Amino acid sequence: EAQVTQNPRYLITVTGKKLTVTCSQNMNHEYMSWYRQDPGLGLRQIYYSMNVEVTDKGDVPEGYKVSRKEKRNFPLILESPSPNQTSLYFCASSLVGREAFFGQGTRLTVV
Amino acid sequence: GDSVTQMEGPVTLSEEAFLTINCTYTATGYPSLFWYVQYPGEGLQLLLKATKADDKGSNKGFEATYRKETTSFHLEKGSVQVSDSAVYFCALIVSGGYQKVTFGIGTKLQVIP
Fold first, then answer.
1. Model confidence at A40, in pLDDT bands (50, 70, 90)?
2. What does R_g of chain B's alpha carbons equal in angstroms?
3. For residue range B33-85, what is the model confidence (pLDDT) as tens digits?
4. Which of A8, A6, A25, A38 is nearest to A100 (CA)?
């Protein structure tokens, strides 16, 4: 089954404790991206990747890191999480110019 | 830059009512247009799409027509059901060296029996 898999689905952590949210897709898509969804703000892009070892900042990259060592994986790293990073996060993948497929989301709470 | 405008809602309708969610866009090139749906507790799913002017996308009784002259892609359904309660996002992609999906803010639809 074609899918984008994120883990974990839910995460509660403390300020400053490094965490990684994993994302994997099995559709051989070149393009992958991370979004955060906040009430009243919709979806905002954090980082994206056009292919292996090619990543770039989206609209709200501060406080986040990503890597793309393999085509299928695109982890999101929060080196020192803060409460303003409490949000619902989505990973997405697509072929260039085509519709995006989304993961189920990761609800992160930073206390 | 590119942008998508849609009402945030919530939009509350009775079952079997007619639905319209407006979506207008601005884009620097020739975009493909999409509607995504997000059911409670889930990720976004593609509902329908249109890739060029005058194309009509349709799925599950929903329709939207790509109107280049009015830069619009309004979502319609003739008779909504309680199960259609969700958040609906209008989105566009302008392909090129930089592929980015630009989303509207999302419109929450509540259908009451």
1. confident
2. 14
3. 999 999 988 889 999 999 999 999 999 999 999 999 999 999 999 999 999 99
4. A25
Distance CA A46, CA A59 (A): 6
Distance, in Å, from the CA atom of B70 to the CA atom of B36, rounded to the nearest integer, reads 21
What is the torsion angle, in degrees rounded to the nearest 10, for the CA atoms of residue A28, residue A32, residue A73 and residue B87?
-100
Name the amino acid, one letter, at A14. Answer: V
Task: State the Cα–Cα distance between residues B10 and A68, nearest whole angstrom.
Answer: 38
Tokens of A44: 């905002």
User: Which of A40, A42, A104 is closest, CB to CB, to B42?
Assistant: A104
Q: Which amino acid is at B42?
A: E
B101, A100: Cβ pair inside 8 Å?
Answer: yes
The encoded tokens of residue A103 equal: 């993961």
Q: What is the CA radius of gyration of chain A?
A: 13
pLDDT at B98: 60
- Stretch 60-99 of chain B: residues touching chain A, C-beta under 8 Å: 89, 93, 95, 99
pLDDT category of residue B11 using cuts at 50, 70 and 90? very high
